[in-house]
Structure formats: structure tokens, C-alpha cells
Amino acid sequence: MHSATITLNDQHTHQVLEGFGANINPIKHWQGGQLIPTLDMLTDDLGATLFRLDPYGFTDWIDPDSVADRVVLQNETYARVYRSQPFQDAWAMARYFNGKGIRFILNVSGIVPRWMCGEDGKTLSDLEAYADLLTSLAWWARHEEGLKFNLFGPFNETDLGPPEGPFVHAEAAAKGLELLAERFERAGLEDIRFVAVDQAHYNLDYLQSIVASKKLREKVAVAGMHCYSDFSLTPVRDFIAHNELTWSYWLTEYGDLDQTGEREWDVAVYSTRRLLRGLLDGVQAAMVWDAYDNWHGHDASWSIYGLLRTGSKNRYTPKKRYYAAKQIYRFVPPGSTRIEVSNEESAPLTAGFQTPQGDLTLVGLNEGEPLLLEIAIGALNSEHQTLRLFITNRTENCQLVSEFPRGEKIQLTIPAESIFTLTTLDAG
Fold this sequence. Notes:
Immunoglobulin-like, TIM Barrel
């Protein structure tokens, strides 16, 4: 057993957290509301407060077979499509989130009708038609369905291209956002702001094109990036600060893309490591890919990226990655501030947080042998004087393993290969 010392300093603060959650698609899962107990588990037990809601899985809903042209972009077609079962399920899910006060991004993904693309059939060229189509979606959700939302994600991994979305160059993405902003304003949707631009590759190319537009500086609310490997996430944080932007910085997708189903503990560890590193690099919110196992239309295959295993008869069972996420989601509510954690080189990866009420949470990932951890907490201001230690490892699932009076210094034995949370909050 080795030892390490860490010190929490609530006088040195960083970003304010805006929420944690998951990507979600209701198709074939809503089942007339049978999914509601599962959504309650994700919100009430896991602690998810934020979802990225994809209503259809493709952006070709107006002409899935690409047999028409932009003449289909008219009210009669919109009404038929948005009243179809897939969209009715999406509206019902969104309405349920509204009822629980859960925030969601309405976003699109996947291919578009071929006639919106150039000669290669992959690169979006008719930006006007694309903006018209997305405006119809947002307008219908707001005005026909009465849904409350103020974030819209108009692109998905368009730097990668099909099947995740049409390929869109950085300059074209900025132009498309400008067209969409103009149409939103004309449609009475001026309060809806954009999440830009849900990139697959981590670089600043798209953000640099967007920030060159004065209009988009105000219309973008969130710089949304995707993270499935280990790398520094500070460039976007620094870009936002350097350009004096009011944008938030979110991981709109993160996790691990193992599809073997044989490495669940590894996936839990990798996902936790990426989330913790993202938080240390300035990320303010994160949504794991994916809420539950489902048919992934992009790849025409069943995906097992979910926090929940999808079984027969609408049964959804938490995986190890669910409990790993719970170690953070449950104990770092929106409005919490990341506080400085100073540690020795031998210390595990850790991040500290304080709620507006003064409650403390320290989350860590111990990937090695058992650890004797000395923690200097100091006289942090909190009404709660009891500390609780929760552990997730190969055998425990966000288990409360001990609770004790808070002191300015404490010693803990952290099991090998474990995710640990020390908090003045409880799990209820």
C-alpha cells in the first residue's frame, strides 16, 4: 500500500458546473410512456439533469428516400412528418423532461436527403434548405407541441461526415449557423441559442470560423465537443477566454466506444478518467454516450454504449459505467463550483467541488494498488458535519462504505482499482 496527501482549497475556485447527463433517442423505447420509470432512474437515482435529445436519428426525415427535392419543404409535409409516431415519441419524452424541470438540447444527427448535398452525395451544399428544415423542427417543437427549450444542436460530427452527419466544412458551418439564426428570428425563436458544433475531431477550426461572425458570437451558447480518448481539453477553454466569449464549454458526448461487452470495468474507468480530466480542464457540463443500449441507426447495428443494459420486456439494468457516473453525477449538482485540489505526484486523479450551500465533494480515480490517502480539508463552510465515502469498483456499486464526523484532516484507505467519492451530501 502506498500513501499520498491532497489538500482542498475553497479559496481558489474554477468553473461553475451546469449539469451532467446523457445522450438519448426515444425511438422504439418510449413505448407510450413505459420508459418513464427508466427516465426516473436516470434523473432521480443517477442524478442526470441534462440530456441531448435526438428525435429521429437522421436528418432526412422530410424525404428519407431522397426521391424529391426542396419542394417538400412546406407546411403540409411538416405536419405529416412531425405528427408521425417517431416524432410523437420524441415530443412526449421532451414534455416529460419539461414536467420534471430537466434541461435538454434538441439536436439533429445523421445523413440528410441526397439532394441537399453536392456531387459526392456527402457534403452539405444547400445550406438554405438545411436551415429551412431545422427551423421547421424547432418551430414545431415550440409552437405546435408547446415544449420549453432554449438550446439547439444543428450539427453532429460534420467534420467526420456520414454516417454521423453530412460533411460540412468549417466556413460552411458558420454560414449555415448564420442562416439558421436569421430564420429562427423570423420564426419567433430568437431566444433559442446554438450548441456548436459537436465535433468528432478536437480542434479549433470550426470555432474560429464561427467566432469571426459577430452575430454568432451572441447566438452560440455552448461550445460542444466530443471526447472518446485521453487528451488535453484546455484549448477550447482558453479559446473562449481569449476571445472574451460568454459561451459555456460542454462535452456533449464522452465515454468509450468498446463494443465487445467484455470490458465493462475498463469502460467505467476510461469514461471516469475522461470526465475527471475534462472537468480539470474547464468543462462545465457533460453528457455520456449513451443513456441505454439501442439500435444505432447511423451504423445499422445494435450498440451497447448505454449506461443501462436494454433487455426484453422494456427492462433496463444499470451497468458498472452507470455506477461510475453516479459517483460524480449524484454528488456534483448544477451550480457547484470546482475548487482547487493540490496533490502529490503519487496521488490519484481527483477533482473537488463545493455546492452553493457549502457542501463538499471530492471525486477520485484510483487505478492502482490500495492507497492510504491523507486529505486536508480545512475549515470549509458547510452546515453538514458528516462525511460519507462511496465506492465503485469491480464488486461495489456506488456503495456507502463509511461515514464519520468531518475534521480538518482525515485519513482514508482507498481500495485498489476504485472510483471514490468523499462528500458531505448523502445519496438520498
